[in-house]
Specification:
Largest sheet: 2 strands, antiparallel
Distance between the termini: 58 Å
Shape: globular
Oligomer: single chain
Helix content: over 70%
Length: 593
């Protein structure tokens, strides 16, 4: 009963946001009230703690709004300077095919940005870039959400592993004893788990670029056809391996800090070169475009409009247009590498504002305004003003437009994040219950029994869906997952690895990530539609990796012919059959002028 009750805030999101298609600004206040009522009436958490958790969430929401504003400002700055026009021309020179463009921008550039910064930054960078290139806003958001799966466990230089798993497992005697039986020091033990995480991600990530392009052609193409996406299966699989192979090798030999960063960067270099020389590229008669804009569904279009800067006498060079993004990537790396002093300065005593014991509770908050990606975006926007030689009137217009856009996103986030904080901080009540996520996970574990590996990824995804963070999901559930693994006599490190993979996949459907990505391009109120489009991707990712995990931990007793490997093999066979049937057939041109 408690497990069912703890699910109510999530059910309310599913009903009002996804099923009834309410905008997040209407659905999330209801979810907040449901969590509030459960915390006060069932868990019997003191009112003062509930209010402290709400305020804690409100502070987080303001920080997220700050990040969204920075991303919008950079986008509008590039729009006003004419750089977006040049970048569009550059991609058209590589290929006008939107399927290839989305793989390069979302899958590869997005993975690199995730590896550098994490915490939703890829959507803030690649989603507006795609809209600037002429993608429908909703198509860009869906693409930006789908790729937030494979690279996420190693985002922000491995934070979900080095902070999430590390913190979640540290201090427990059983975990420490297990690591010692393997002859591993603590950090080596975390790296050992991270290698297993990378193996699972590399397997599931193989099909993500193909799912990405097929989803785009089905949901946003003129012919509503998966087949048009499958036609580039060779290039999509090549692009997947160009990222996942170096990603896996880095995880195995260098540790959890750099798999996504190096995988994305190496893959980007390989795939862009391959596209330029026409390797595995579609022929001219097979080039795929979106339909004419006047034929688009109005729901796809955000408030951001592409402007043609006709007054510029000399077109901007490609290097100059891309320079702000190069600066963004460089600053992300420089300020996140622990070996360099910049991170310590931006996160140091004089750059951090701490709020302790909110309303007399144990809850607190540390604010680092100069370390957040928002500060970086604003800084690069200012730099762009000078390097692009903008006039002051245009730059002021970029600031005003960004400020107007951010207002609509705030209405949803000021309820979404406080709801999350109540959900996470629902322990300590007079009823004596654990916090809601743990109660929910325990209920599922009791029902699942030895089949738990199939569910462990979904629990990890649930944590990320609610909390908006793979790191938080790992901190919350890692020890619980380890314990369940021991109770069912399965290798607990594989169970923890499944938790991390599921937590990464949960970002695909995370409410406040969708709200943030939508707000960047002015597509507020369509969050439920976006989640409905990305939910099948999450289910694929969690089921496929959960099946592989079950097969691995059951191999010793059931051999290769266990239900986990059978399900995983079935998914692979079906995918190959679909590619053979539809991807290798005679192409149908979907060219639109």
């Amino acid at each position: 009963m408690l497990a069912a009750l703890s699910l109510l805030p999530i059910i309310s999101v599913a009903v009002f946001l996804v099923m009834l298609r309410w905008p997040a600004s209407r659905a999330m206040p209801i979810s907040y009230l449901v969590a509030l009522g459960l915390a006060l009436l069932v868990w019997q958490v003191p009112f003062i703690k509930v209010m402290a958790a709400s305020l804690n969430g409100l502070i987080d929401a303001i920080e997220l709004i700050y990040i969204i504003f920075g991303a919008i400002l950079l986008l509008n700055t590039l729009q006003e300077s004419g750089a977006i026009q040049t970048i569009r021309r550059g991609f058209s020179d590589i290929t006008p095919d939107r399927r290839i463009q989305v793989i390069i921008i979302a899958w590869l550039f997005g993975s690199f940005i995730e590896g550098s910064a994490g915490f939703g930054t890829p959507a803030a960078v690649v989603v507006p870039l795609m809209v600037g290139l002429g993608f429908p806003a909703m198509a860009a958001v869906v693409a930006g959400m789908i790729i937030q799966s494979t690279p996420v466990s190693f985002g922000a230089l491995g934070t979900p592993m080095l902070t999430g798993i590390y913190t979640g497992l540290s201090g427990d005697p059983a975990v420490l004893a297990y690591s010692q039986t393997l002859g591993l020091e603590w950090l080596d033990f975390i790296a050992f788990i991270a290698a297993r995480v990378a193996i699972l991600h590399a397997a599931a990530g193989t099909f993500i670029p193909l799912i990405l392009v097929s989803s785009m052609t089905y949901f946003f193409g003129r012919n509503k056809s998966f087949i048009e996406g499958l036609k580039v299966w060779k290039f999509a699989l090549f692009s997947a391996f160009a990222m996942t192979i170096p990603y896996l090798l880095v995880a195995l030999f260098l540790g959890p800090e750099f798999p996504s960063l190096f995988g994305g960067l190496i893959g980007l270099a390989i795939v862009v070169y391959a596209a330029k020389i026409g390797f595995l590229m579609p022929k001219n008669v097979e080039i795929w475009h979106f339909d004419k804009k006047e034929n688009w569904d109005p729901h796809w279009i955000g408030t951001f409009e592409i402007k043609e800067i006709s007054k510029v006498a000399t077109p901007m060079s490609m290097k100059k247009a891309w320079l702000p993004y190069v600066i963004v990537a460089a600053l992300l790396i420089l300020t996140r590498l622990p070996q360099l002093p910049f991170s310590l300065v931006l996160r140091g005593e004089f750059s951090t504002f701490t709020i302790n014991n909110i309303f007399g509770t144990e809850l607190g908050q540390s604010i680092q305004p100069f370390y957040t990606p928002a500060a970086l975006f604003v800084t690069v926007s200012i730099i762009t003003y000078f390097i692009h030689g903008m006039n002051l009137k245009s730059y002021i217009r970029a600031w005003k437009t960004s400020a107007r856009t951010i207002v609509s996103a705030g209405a949803a986030l000021i309820f979404t994040v406080p709801m999350v904080q109540i959900f996470l901080n629902s322990d300590g009540g007079t009823a004596g219950y654990e916090q809601m996520p743990i109660v929910l996970a325990e209920g599922v574990a009791i029902a699942a029994g030895s089949a738990w590996p199939f569910f462990s990824t979904f629990i990890g995804g649930l944590g990320a869906f609610v909390a908006g963070s793979n790191t938080v999901s790992n901190m919350m559930f890692s020890l619980f997952q380890f314990g369940v693994g021991e109770r069912i006599s399965a290798d607990p490190t594989w169970i923890v690895a499944l938790q991390a993979v599921g937590g990464a996949a949960g970002n695909v459907i995370c409410v406040h990530n969708v709200v943030a990505a939508s707000a960047v391009v002015g597509l507020v109120g369509r969050e439920g539609e976006i989640i409905r489009k990305t939910l099948p991707v999450f289910i694929y990712y969690a089921l496929f990796t959960g099946s592989i995990g079950y097969g691995i931990v059951s191999f010793g007793t059931n051999g290769l012919l266990n239900i986990g490997f059978i399900i995983a093999a079935t998914i692979i066979v079906v995918a190959c059959a679909v590619i053979i049937k539809y991807g290798m057939g005679k192409s149908q041109s979907s060219k639109v002028n």
